[in-house]
Amino acid sequence: MSLGATMSPNLTPEQLEEDSHWWFASRTRALMALLDGELANDRLQVLDVGCGAGNMIHHLSRYGTVIGIDNNPLPLKVAHQRGYDARLAEAERMPFDDQAFDLVTALDVVEHCDDDLQILQECHRVCRNDGLFAVTVPAYQWLWSGNDVINDHKRRYSRADLHAKLAEAGFRVLRMTFNNFFIFPAAAGLILARRGADKEPDLATPSTDQEAYQVEMEPTSPPVNAVLTAIGRLEAALLRHVDLPFGTSLLCIARKEAHPGAEGG
């Protein structure tokens, strides 16, 4: 499930829930497990599309120099407080030259866009030939819930959906795996039960992008957060060796093909 985090205008970097919440921590560990298997260079040019307050800029910096972009100025203020190079820009029209980056990431971004192919093609444009692209998206349209509505998602993805979009944009899939594998039965059961009871979580809707950084998460108690974080660590360790067959999110590492429309792998 793609969940967001509340951020008030006065929030300091140390207070960002994104840095400690199990969902973000698990996604970060899973992504780094896959990228570590493909990257040995620490002098790359890296772009994080939809960087928010810069949490992933911090983690991606192990691979080189990182620039982040986001279309919401509020979280960018926090990214700037943290000393990150984070810029206000639209993912559909990035202010960068062709083939400017060795690694491009778009983590839970494309599901928000009316034209997801346009975003993927723009990521392809700014990625160098043979460069890498990392993308995460919410999985399975049948898992659609109130969280998707609140987070302004346009869709969820199957493996086939994501693979086809990436191939059309010109990327060749290297690895595609699900994430949140161990919690999937419980998460899916909860969503289906709520749907059957016509009862969705009471989440506040931000009135404008300027007033909130994404949206409120369902609260997680510290003990539950600790357990789910530990499960995320286990999944990340497994992902260094195998792909997971199902989960609430999809994570993919792909390589840029020079000519869009190339077959995916």
- For this structure, the CATH topology is Rossmann fold
The helix-strand sequence is: HEHEHEEHEHHEHHE
CATH class: Alpha Beta
CATH homologous superfamily descriptor? Vaccinia Virus protein VP39
Please tell me about this protein's structure:
The protein has 8 helices and 7 strands; from the N terminus they run αβαβαββαβααβααβ. With 265 residues, it is α/β, with parallel strands linked by helices. The chain has one domain: Vaccinia Virus protein VP39 (Rossmann fold), CATH 3.40.50. It has a 7-stranded mixed β-sheet, with helices on both faces. Strand 4, helix 4 and strand 5 form a beta-alpha-beta unit. Helix 4 (116-126) crosses helix 6 (159-169). Residues 1-15, 202-216 and 261-265 have low confidence and may be disordered.
Please provide a brief summary of the model.
With 265 residues, the protein is of the alpha/beta class.
List the helices and strands and how they pair.
Blueprint: H1 22-36, E1 44-49, H2 55-60, E2 64-70, H3 73-81, E3 86-88, E4 101-107, H4 116-126, E5 127-138, H5 146-150, H6 159-169, E6 171-179, H7 184-196, H8 222-239, E7 249-256
Helix pairs in contact: 1-8, 4-6
What descriptors fit this protein?
single chain; alpha/beta; 265 residues; Rossmann fold; globular; disordered C terminus; 8 helices
